[in-house]
Amino acid sequence: MLQCQGQNERNYEEWQALLEWLEAAFPSSAPDSDESGNESVEDEASMARRMAQDKLAQDAGYADKLLDTVMNGPLTEQTVLALEQLAYLDHPEVDAALTGWLKDQPLHPLFQFRVLQTLRRREMSGLVTIQRDEEIVEIEIEHVPLSHNEFPDAIMKILERVAEKTEIHEPTLYYFAQELWTQFVMAIYGTATYRSMLDGEESTMDIWAAALHDIVSESLKGNRKEEEIRSYYGITDTMRFKYEGAYRSLKQFVSADVDD
Question: How far is CA 213 from CA 18, 21, 110, 225, 260, in A?
């Protein structure tokens, strides 16, 4: 986007500033697939599993070292790499260690979601009880999405509504909306707010799409155009209360990660 020609110089600066904020707040995770499809993903998983098992065969304490890095060290790239290796390590103590840690320790919601993904990749099943912000939630491990395509249709349709309004005339806005939405739904996964999005109501999807559009537009342009954006999605006065609640949820998430 930043390489497109013919745009106002101030727009370049705003886009670059927001891009740098997103990259700092939400480090990109490894892609779940590539152009060659699922077969390539399976090959990579098989290779990662073989490498992890080889290291365990060479060092009986390898699993404990990885767990120590994940659970006791600072949150760094090395921590994330250790967590990825644990996903492919056949060791009986890993599941219990990670689930106990999730239950007992307050973790950043995005890192917490990565741990849940690790448990699913380890083919664990059943319920895990964790605290997400102020809420105690039960997560079914076998249903934890491993990619954005695995989130329920209602979650993806919210983003599709934003795409319909922005892809042609504001493609930059949609790009950032997509990034923010992906991170937001991971951070609130399993909570009452997340579950409320799954009611299948058209009005619910419109409310969240409008709130997402609103907050990204505000971040890019420096001011809110709330009434104009609400009109795009047909947000009536009777929907206003729920709309403001959705906007606040997104705003709090963005503000919390900027502060971190």
Answer: 15, 17, 22, 10, 23
Q: What spatial distance separates the first Cα and last Cα of the chain, rounded to whole Å?
A: 27
Q: How far apart are CA 84 and CA 48, in angstroms?
A: 9
Residue 115: burial class (beta carbons within 10 Å; 0-12, 13-18, 19+): buried
Confirm if 66 and 82 have CB atoms less than 8 A apart: yes
Q: Tell me how long the chain is.
A: 260
Confidence (pTM): 0.79
Closest CA relative to residue 151, chosen from 195, 108, 203, 119:
195
Q: Give the three-state DSSP class for 169.
A: coil
Task: Spell out the long-range contacts of 170-173 with Cβ–Cβ below 8 A and sequence spacing 24 or more.
Answer: 171/1, 172/1, 172/11, 172/15, 172/220, 173/213, 173/216, 173/217, 173/220
Could you tell me if 204 and 260 are in contact, meaning their C-beta atoms sit under 8 angstroms apart? Answer: no
How do residues 46-94 score in pLDDT, each as one tens digit?
A: 777 777 777 877 877 888 999 999 999 888 888 888 998 999 888 888 9
Show the tokens assigned to 61.
């304490």
